[in-house]
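F.,

This is the one I mentioned.
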């Protein structure tokens, strides 16, 4: 590779690094996690069942939100997406339980939420979680992890590898 080609590869890699936006990715991941939890609750009410496969969709949604808005190149984006997927799964199970209470007893959502204590919430999870919930949550984590990083073209991947292999590579980090 010539010096001109190498310089062009470095410029492309530096542009990709500069496009990363962790705050935007985090915001999109949080919104996706909340939206996914609410959707999971709504799907559960509509079908009458807690459908575990929805957790995977939630993970994809969170990861994809991180990817599109964060444009991340590092595992930091995947790790945060994975955590947000777990939070979304917890929220989805909880949202479904609240919506079932609202539907079965005709009580407003605010009334259900205002009477809950931390003990009630802990009891809900300890009494209702099953091994299959955790399996689907693990799949959601995997999906979020996989979808969170930016997809690179072959040219971009080559540029990032060339950038990482540069002689002064130890002097800076990709954040």
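My design for it:
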């Amino acid at each position: 590779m010539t010096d001109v080609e190498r310089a062009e590869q470095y410029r492309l890699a530096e542009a990709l690094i500069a496009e990363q936006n962790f705050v935007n990715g985090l915001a999109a991941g949080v919104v996706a996690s909340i939206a996914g939890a609410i959707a999971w609750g709504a799907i559960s009410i509509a079908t009458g069942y807690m459908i575990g496969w929805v957790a995977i969709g939630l993970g994809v949604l969170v990861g994809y939100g991180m990817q599109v808005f964060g444009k991340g190149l590092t595992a930091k984006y995947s790790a945060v997406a994975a955590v947000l997927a777990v939070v979304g799964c917890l929220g989805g199970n909880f949202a479904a339980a609240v919506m079932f209470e609202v539907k079965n007893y005709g009580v407003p959502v605010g009334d259900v939420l205002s009477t809950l204590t931390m003990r009630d919430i802990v009891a809900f999870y300890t009494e209702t979680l099953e091994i299959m919930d955790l399996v689907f949550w693990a799949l959601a984590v995997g999906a979020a992890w996989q979808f969170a990083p930016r997809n690179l073209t072959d040219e971009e991947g080559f540029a990032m590898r060339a950038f990482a292999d540069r002689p002064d590579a130890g002097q800076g980090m990709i954040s």
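The helical segments are 3-19, 22-47, 53-70, 75-105, 109-115, 118-128, 131-147, 154-164.

Talk soon.
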